[in-house]
Amino acid sequence: MNKVPDTELVLVPGGTLITSTAEEGRALAITMARHSIHNIQPDLDVLKAGRPVYSTSPDSLIAVSEVIAIEFQTIAAANSYWRK
């Protein structure tokens, strides 16, 4: 199996949801969504084989956007919505 590197299988990169800015929080949300997919399907060949289908499917793109939004909500809450 052509496996995803172990560095990509970490569910919370850096071990924390705390970020300095909302921009960093959004980037972390995207990274966490990607890492979740890698943990679910660690075989890179299978992931790459499906890419032509899901990367052009509006439903798939909306679904991944929803996952990222949920991750971002979690990160925002952990950061108390970036206290002022």
Using brief descriptors, characterize the structure shown.
single chain, 84 residues, mainly alpha, 61% helix, 0% strand, flat
What does this protein look like?
This protein is an all-alpha fold and 84 residues long. The chain has one domain (20-78). The chain contains 3 helices and no strands. α1 packs across α3. It is flat, with a radius of gyration of 14 Å. The termini are far apart.
Q: Brief overview, please?
A:
The chain is mostly helical and 84 residues long.
Q: What is the strand and helix layout of this fold?
A:
Blueprint: H1 22-40, H2 44-54, H3 58-78
Helix pairs in contact: 1-3
Can you give the helix content as a percent range?
Answer: 55-70%
Q: What's the mean pLDDT score?
A: 93
N-to-C span: 48 Å
Helix and strand element order: HHH
List how many beta strands DSSP finds: 0
Tell me the overall shape.
Answer: flat
Strand content: under 5%
Q: From the alpha carbons, calculate the radius of gyration and give it in angstroms.
A: 14 Å
How many domains? 1
Q: What would you call the structural class?
A: mainly alpha
| Low-confidence sequence ranges | none
Please outline the major beta sheet: none
In DSSP terms (H or I, runs of 4 or more residues), the helix count works out at 3
